[in-house]
Amino acid sequence: MKKIKVLGSGCANCLNTADLIQTVADELNIDIQIEKVQDMAQIMAYQVMSTPAVVIDEQVIHKGSVPSRDLVTSWFA
């Protein structure tokens, strides 16, 4: 199971990012656990200055925008 964190304030883009990741994982039958991190201290610990950001297995792989569906799919390849 992949552990995924979506870092952000809870804004629409952050929620859309989490929803997109879950949708793609469901379509690919991949078991994931999503955590939405809204605490600024935790976000800053990842050295992220722009959100939404995505962390997979404790590695920041995307930040600053809602990722495209193709990009999200590539994370599970």
Description:
There is one protein chain. The protein is α+β, with helices and mostly antiparallel strands and 77 residues long. 38% of the residues lie in helices and 27% in strands. It contains three helices and four strands. Strands 2-1-3-4 form a four-stranded mixed sheet. Strand 1 (2-7), helix 1 and strand 2 (32-37) form a beta-alpha-beta unit. It starts with a strand and ends with a helix.
Helix and strand arrangement:
Layout: E1 2-7, H1 12-27, E2 32-37, H2 40-45, E3 53-56, E4 59-63, H3 69-75
Parallel strand pairs: 1-2
Antiparallel strand pairs: 1-3, 3-4
Helix content: 25-40%
Largest sheet: 4 strands, mixed
Detail the poorly predicted runs. Answer: none
Briefly note the structural class of the backbone. Answer: alpha+beta
Strand proportion? 25-35%
Strand order of the largest sheet: 2-1-3-4
